[in-house]
Amino acid sequence: MRVSRVVVKNFRNYKDAALDLSDGRNILIGENAQGKTNLLEAIELIACGRSDRASNDRELVLRGESEALIEVSYHSAGYSETASLILTAGDRMSRKAKINGVSQPAGKKFAARLTTVSFKASDLNLLRGGPKFRRDWLDQLVCKLKNSHIDLTARYDKIVQQRNKLLKTFFEKGSVGPSGLDELRVWDRQLAQYGSQIIKHRVHALALALPLAEDYQASISGNREKLTAQYIFKQVESDTDSQSSSMSVERASEKESLGIDELKLMPLEDLAQLLLAQLKSRRQEEIVRKQSLSGPHRDDVSFALNDFVASSYASQGQQRSLVLALKLAELKLVSDRLEEPPLLLLDDVLAELDLSRQGMLMQLVETGMQTLITTTDLDGFRSEWLNGAKVVAVHAGQILSDKVNQEKLADPGLQSD
Fold it and tell me: 110, 191, 229, 259: which one has the fewest Cβ atoms less than 10 Å from its Cβ?
């Protein structure tokens, strides 16, 4: 898989820019807030149709403009394609997607042949952040392995939204009549039907990734640390995503988890019935809180090192190692399933890794994987990352040519506001 060119117009802080990529390592260098990460975000929008940095598409359009364009040319699975996405701001935001000039259905993952694996400094939130970070990571992994998961989660999200509206109505009325209860049961069945499929997809992906991550963790730690994981299916305590995921042993015991193998073997119908039972048992609480408290949108994954919950007991170095092990597992799993390397996006992450951990990552990258790296400074990089790399400077929403970059990279005026 190779991306040859990225074009952005009125996107984030870019008025009009184009980036040509080499087949190997590409390094974008510049101070913070110059636009390096925005280019990676543009590629991910084409690859998976979503951004984890924007709450809505309006944030992606350059201030003062009404329309933004992203265009990515790539070669994958024997096909050469140019995929484009136009974001238009009006009374409401709209999207228009095309591949080789042919319009694609809105809201779909239209560039299925372009797959990326990203590793960002913010990925440390896989341990430090709330359950949403782990759910999102797992769902994104599933989407790369099973394209239908995108539509499934979109459908499920709409069901939860509609069900929450009904719960709010019950709360405001102060009662639930027979017809209202019948309507709620309809939404319950749909939530259980689609939710059980999402859980199954997640658990299967986790079961594939975990053995790889265990091996990487053992290698990084010199066989001193054993990585294990549990899928937290039912949470007795309220799960507030905005809060820290820091979890003591006592709190962990308040959550009911099912083993990954157990969930894998459980028939889909039984899992749906388990979800229905949870919804029924928490119905009054849901009405009071006006939200759906059970289902895959509330689930979590707990990682442990030597049987100690990593989010609570792992040191910063151990947390970095564990996240690296998970990302390496994702990279290996996706590469094997695609039968070709994905595009690897490393966003300001190498500075977070010591030379040993960089070496672990380099072992996979050396297989001919195209890589796009952002950084504020080349110091601290292993020499292998720089050998043969294409280095391009980014400043104030402008991509500088290689010639200008090589002559002026050391000029402080190019790396400051």
Answer: 259
DSSP string, 248-296: -HHHHHTEEEE-HHHHHHS-HHHHHHHHHHHHHHTHHHHHHHTS--SST
Tokens of 230: 């549990």
The angle at the Cα of 234, spanning 233 to 236, to the nearest 5 degrees, equals 155
By DSSP bridging, strand 67-76 and strand 398-399 are unpaired
For 228, the 3-state DSSP assignment is strand
Q: Which residue in the block uniquely carries the two structure tokens 């309809």?
A: 186
Token pair listed for 262: 């157990």
Question: Do the beta carbons of residue 311 and residue 337 sit within 8 Å?
Answer: no
The residues near 102 (Cβ < 8 Å, ≥ 6 apart) are none
Do the beta carbons of residue 241 and residue 131 sit within 8 Å?
yes
Report the SS3 class of residue 324.
helix
Structure tokens at 16: 């009009």
| Domains of the chain, CATH where assigned | 2-115+342-414 (3.40.50.300), 128-316 (1.20.1050.90)
Q: Distance (Å, rounded) from C-alpha 157 to C-alpha 93?
A: 19
Q: What is the pTM of this model?
A: 0.86
Run of H or E including 10: strand 2-11
The single-letter DSSP state of residue 61 is: B
Q: Give the angle 400-99-157 at the CA atoms, nearest 5°.
A: 100
Q: What is the pLDDT of residues 44-81, one digit of tens each?
A: 999 988 888 888 999 999 999 999 999 999 999 888 99
Residue 322 is encoded by which pair of tokens? 């564990």
Mean pLDDT of the chain, nearest integer: 87
Distance CA 139, CA 155 (A): 14
Q: CA-CA distance, 106 to 119, in Å (whole number)? A: 28
